Amino acid sequence: MADLDLPASAGRALDGHVGATSALSPQRAFERLSRAVRSLVRYEPSDPWELDTESLPKPLAGYRRLVRAFAARHLRPLSLSADLEPHEPPGRCSPASLEVLRAAGRAGLLSDLLPRPLGSMSPGLLRYPLFFPQALKTEELAAVDGGLMLLICANGLGAAPVVLSGELGSIRRHLLPAFRASERGDPHVFAFAITEPDAGSDVEEGHGAVRYRPGVSARRVPGGYRIRGRKCFISGGDIARSIVVFSALEGEGMESWTAFLVPNSAPGFRVARTELKMGMRASGAAEIELDEVFVPDSSVLGALRSGWALNRATLNMSRIPVAAMAVGFARAATEEATRFACRFRLAGKPLASFQEVQLALAQMEAETSSARGMVWRAAARRQARQAEASAAKFHCTDVARRVCETAMDLMSNHATLHENRVEKAFRDARLTQIFEGTNQINRLAVIEDDQERLLDAIDASERARSNA
Ligand SMILES: Cc1cc2nc3c(=O)[nH]c(=O)nc-3n(C[C@H](O)[C@H](O)[C@H](O)COP(=O)(O)OP(=O)(O)OC[C@H]3O[C@@H](n4cnc5c(N)ncnc54)[C@H](O)[C@@H]3O)c2cc1C
User: Fold this and answer.
1) How many Cα atoms are found within 13 Å in the side-chain-facing hemisphere of 50?
2) Ligand 1 pocket, 381 CB below 6 A?
3) Is residue 226 part of a domain?
4) pLDDT for residue 5
5) Is there a single domain that holds both residue 112 and residue 136?
6) Would you tell me which of 132, 146, 414, 437 could form a disulfide with 128, CB atoms 3.0–4.6 Å apart?
7) Collapsing DSSP states into helix, strand and coil, what is residue 92?
8) Is the CB of 208 under 6 A from ligand 1?
9) What torsion, rounded to 10 degrees, do the Cα atoms 340, 346, 350, 352 define?
10) Cα(312) to centroid of ligand 1, in Å?
11) Are residues 87 and 205 in the same domain?
12) 28 within some domain
């Protein structure tokens, strides 16, 4: 079982199994196979995390180990308390969470979207798609704490459009000074702002966007633009120093959407509120107000009117790390439930002795592992594919919810206790079904990607019908 030190079980057995010393135990039986066959089939207790890590190419495996060690050192000690911190007013981060951000910055986890010397990504990782390390990072952090994970990882979502703008000038101007500050322990965090009070899905899928009249607009003025309107539910928007605001050009519709880099120090920029939400509480979801905020021409990311494309490109990539964070929650819930099943006794026996419980634990392991496989396959593509990223997002987040629910069922009233971490994983996992496009919208994105093929098939079948 994942991440557990189970006692050596020689001479003993769980109900429904033979012990390791029995002549019929798989261990003993395998010993009798020839060395050549044993090299093909392995039968020994193994740590699934290690097995998965060993299956990765060395640079990715090294990165996974590094983030896991970071999470154990910096997130684990705070993971329960950060969730209980009083709701901070806009612009404030609890001192403990701020310390985690500082540590993440120093460790290079806020600047790893680009390779050294631009960012902190080790050159060995350059051979792999940009979002593979990000996916590994989010799973490792989420497996320890969802709120602190989002506090760190929302920065990658915010910085992504700057990278995807493909403009060296923007990268040099906006990202490099921010990355250097973060690496010095002075976290300069980015946030990604598309959602508006009247539009969540409508700014994520084409059908709704066609009809939506944007609530945030940018008016041309000498030397730049003045932006007005509101964005809401912006992860990390309460503490971000740079916010990528997607805005229409005045008098135009969604086709004119343009991404602007807005510093939080700009006059007219205000964090109006942060939401008290059910999960991932260490990360603020902020409503931001832009009251005639002036931004110079140099703050436009990519070309004017390229915001919709930049938004969709960012989402197609970032949905993979969101799927990965869900895997982290499923893993955390599986580990907690397994520990509990070994510790808790029912009718004089450990819970893990009951076969119904074993079936549930095996199912949780398998679902988590298959979700991880889906994430890694999507993350390994040189070019992110919308259908694959969206399918990973909705499937893995649904898996996480199911696995957390099974853990809650197994642990019953113990699951409801904050100290046992499962209710927290459950609350955190539930959010992943909603953000980065609801799971319904992500299902539709899979079909959207396949639209041409489906239309061709419909045409072909209609032609066949009319020829018949
Ligand atoms: C914790 C958290 C963090 C977030 N972080 C960010 C962030 O950093 N940046 C940001 O910009 N936004 C962020 N969001 C916003 C998030 O992306 C939106 O909440 C999400 O897109 C859903 O939008 P909505 O809540 O407005 O739902 P709506 O769009 O109002 O949808 C309501 C319901 O209608 C369904 N629906 C909508 N359109 C269709 C359709 N065409 N067909 C079928 N069903 C449909 C939806 O699936 C949903 O069930 C965050 C949200 C949360 C909760």
Assistant:
1) 6
2) no
3) yes
4) 42
5) yes
6) 132
7) coil
8) yes
9) -70
10) 14
11) no
12) yes
Q: Three-state SS across 422-468?
A: HHHHHHHHHHHCCCCCCHHHHHHHHHHHCHHHHHHHHHHHHHHHHHC
Residue nearest to atom 53 of ligand 1 (CA): 435
The tokens for 16 are 């429904």
> Which tens digit of pLDDT belongs to each residue from 83-100?
888 777 776 778 888 999
Residue 199 CA to ligand 1 center (angstroms) comes to: 8
Is the distance from the beta carbon of residue 200 to the nearest atom of ligand 1 less than 6 Å? yes
Find out whether 18 and 25 touch, Cβ atoms under 8 Å. Answer: yes
The per-residue pLDDT for range 164-184, each reduced to its tens digit, is 999 999 999 999 999 999 999
Q: How confident is the model at residue 46 (pLDDT cuts 50, 70, 90)?
A: confident
Pocket test for ligand 1, best of 149, 201, 231 (most atoms within 8 A of CB): 201
Domain boundaries, position 11: 1-45
Same domain, 179 and 203: no
Shared domain for 41 and 54, answered yes or no, is no
Tell how far the Cα of 259 is from the centroid of ligand 1, in angstroms: 19
User: Which of 248, 274, 308 is a domain's end point?
Assistant: 308
Question: What average pLDDT does this structure show over 378-393?
Answer: 95
Verify that 74 and 147 share a domain, yes or no: yes
Whether residues 277 and 393 share a domain: the answer is no
Q: Is residue 462 part of a domain?
A: no
Taking CA atoms only, the protein residue closest to ligand 1 atom 27 is 200
Helices of type H across 94-187: 95-106, 131-142, 146-164, 168-170, 176-183
In one-letter notation, the amino acid at residue 392 is A
Structural domains of the chain, count: 4
Average pLDDT rounded to a whole number, residues 363-378: 98
Q: Do 227 and 283 sit in the same domain of this protein?
A: yes
pLDDT at 20: 83
Q: Which atom of ligand 1 lies at the shortest distance from residue 280's CA?
A: 1
Residue 463 lies in a domain: no
Residue ending a domain, among 308, 333, 355, is 308
Do 207 and 287 lie in a common domain?
Answer: yes
Residue with tokens 């390791």: 20
Residue 233 near ligand 1, beta carbon < 6 Å: yes
The CATH number of the domain holding residue 265 is 2.40.110.10
Residue written as token pair 């489906």: 454
